Amino acid sequence: MQNxxxxxxxxxxxxxxxxxxxxxIYICAxxxxxxxxxxxxxxxxxxxxxxKAVNAAEELRxxxxxxxxxxxxxxxxxxxxxxxxxLESFAKKNSGYAGSKAWSMIAGIYSGRxxxxxxxxxxxxxxxxxxxxxxGSVAMFNAGAAAEEQGKLAEAIEYYxxxxxxxxxxxxxxxxxxxxxxxxxxxxxxxxxIEAYRAVISGWxxxxxxxxxxxxxxxxxxxx
Length: 224
Prior knowledge:
The protein contains ten helices and no strands.
């Protein structure tokens, strides 16, 4: 145990250490202070740029929504091409919500034109840009639909499966899983189709609509 006489010696040692190394201590403290300021500034700038990007994406969305109903009309062809160019330029410079939103609008234009290969490419870019948010899973699901339109069934299954395991969660997950079963069934792979349908039942017990559809397909397949 320490006695009462040891405390001043310890305190004196600390004071002596500080006195001898005060210059280094002040420099370290200054560096830490500057680092804190820099980190705060970086986060602040990121937030500012993120907000500006989101606002710019919303402006593009307004133009998109105006043109979308008449996207295949010849009178609007030049306006659509200009919008596509602006969207692609913006999407390549941004990621996260803003970038994914822009790629999704590009994909929407190509889907409206039934240019499924281009739509698939754009949806995949949207999924990559928005991988950590809900838009990523939505885009991956739509990439599956675009691939299916082209008869690329293996790719469609892959995309649907990826949309299900999205880290952000996905409200259309039971539909995606059912789609996997539906494609497996169309390919004549009965066992894999039944397995996929059973995954709907076990994975989303609260979703009665897709559970009922899955049950009906299982019964139909097992009765053959």
